[in-house]
Structure to design on (234 residues):
């Protein structure tokens, strides 16, 4: 499998361009109800959500624009530390999924609201082991609960959305508790912000940020919170 990075370095030659452009309908966000079950009033000022929903460039880019999110880091979860490297994960046999570790202030945004954005804007939870042009289990839709409360909220929300038939097909998002997050290489961090003219970003990821702004205006932040502008990722 040719990696996205290699294709982008090659300039997305016209002969391969079609494989990187997804139909606009694939990036249409869904208006979905908020979860009926959410976390209790915050006892802390910082919590973590760990999510996978296709290429981490777009998922990170979305949550970097969410008010209440203090940090969003691209990385890998689901496999071992020894295989948490882009070229290895790209093989699809490491158990890892491209993931984003979202650190947020629960006084400003709840875990349930994070999940609402995740399902509505950040990805399509009905696509099994792929998102748009990206194929393989490393692009699966997965929630990695950090504790029992998050697992309970996520499981209840998936059931709620399925019962409401919000999506045309069943949600295939898996729950994988007890997994470790490994930050991705520096060149993957802040990729959407640093590469706004990349054709992959233009066609696949910038529409997600626009959908966030349109559907969640009260939570949209114009200036993203960047990784490389703060502490190092590893």
């Amino acid at each position: 499998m040719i990696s996205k990075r290699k294709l982008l370095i090659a300039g997305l030659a016209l002969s391969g361009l079609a494989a990187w452009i997804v139909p606009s309908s694939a990036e249409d966000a869904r208006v979905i109800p908020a979860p009926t079950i959410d976390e209790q009033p915050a006892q802390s000022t910082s919590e973590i959500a760990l999510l996978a929903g296709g290429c981490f460039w777009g998922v990170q880019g979305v949550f970097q624009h969410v008010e209440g999110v203090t940090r969003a880091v691209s990385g890998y979860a689901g496999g071992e530390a020894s295989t948490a490297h882009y070229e290895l994960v790209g093989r699809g046999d490491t158990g890892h999924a491209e993931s984003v570790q979202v650190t947020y202030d629960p006084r400003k945004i709840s875990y349930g609201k994070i999940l609402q954005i995740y399902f509505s804007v950040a990805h399509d939870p009905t696509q099994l082991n792929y998102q748009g042009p990206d194929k393989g289990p490393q692009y699966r839709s997965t929630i990695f609960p950090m504790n029992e409360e998050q697992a309970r909220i996520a499981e209840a929300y998936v059931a709620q959305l399925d019962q409401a038939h919000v999506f045309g097909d069943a949600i295939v998002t898996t729950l994988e508790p007890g997994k470790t997050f490994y930050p991705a290489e520096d060149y993957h961090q802040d990729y959407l912000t640093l590469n706004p003219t990349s054709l992959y970003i233009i066609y696949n990821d910038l529409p997600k940020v626009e959908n966030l702004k349109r559907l969640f205006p009260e939570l949209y932040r114009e200036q993203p919170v960047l990784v490389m502008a703060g502490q190092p990722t590893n």
Remarks:
- Confidence is low (pLDDT under 50) at residues 5-26.
